[in-house]
Amino acid sequence: MKRACIAFTAVFATAVAALLTGQSATVSSVATAAESVPSYEQWQADVKQVMDPAIPWLQNRAAQGGNKLAIVSDIDNTALETEYHPGKANKPVFDAVKWGKDHGYAILFVTARTSASSARTDVQKAGYPVDGVCVRKSGETLAQGKQRCRKDLTAQGYTITANIGNRPTDFEGGVYEKQFKLPDYDGQLS
Q1: pLDDT tens digits, residue range 15-64?
Q2: How confident is the model over 132-154, as pLDDT tens digits?
Q3: b/e map 128-144, b = 16+ CB within 10 Å
Q4: Terminus of the chain with fewer CB atoms < 10 Å: N or C?
């Protein structure tokens, strides 16, 4: 049902944009808008491809040692399947995070959401271990909030070894060792 609503919204937005700009909405432009978000199966295949190297990389990184090794993950359409199954854990990400927790990594969530308590509740309900949550403050852009959070976490002594996200704003400004960039399909999955 949600995918049908999204497809309708995309088609409607394409048609309205065409009317407002004086252009015609062709069948192909409307069809392209409706198909902009891939199927769940395709998304999961794409996510799995990105996350398959994560556990071997985390194993190698743990062997190097360090203080307060941490995995940072975004929440929406990264840790959770927000677009496809709201509230459900995204299995390839969950598996890497669970492995990390079982092997001594701190699990931290950095999100564009503005409520730490609801963010924590949502990821815990999906089964994730949570050692910390950092949210965007009022007035911050998405990138500013996430950069500040990673800086704050490193100031607390964490070594952010892996940073998992799906949007470019999840990675701007660095302050992590390795990124695992999930697909966002040109911003279609926020």
Answers
A1: 444 444 444 434 333 344 445 899 999 999 999 999 999 999 999 999 99
A2: 999 999 999 999 999 999 999 99
A3: bebebbbbbeeebebbe
A4: N
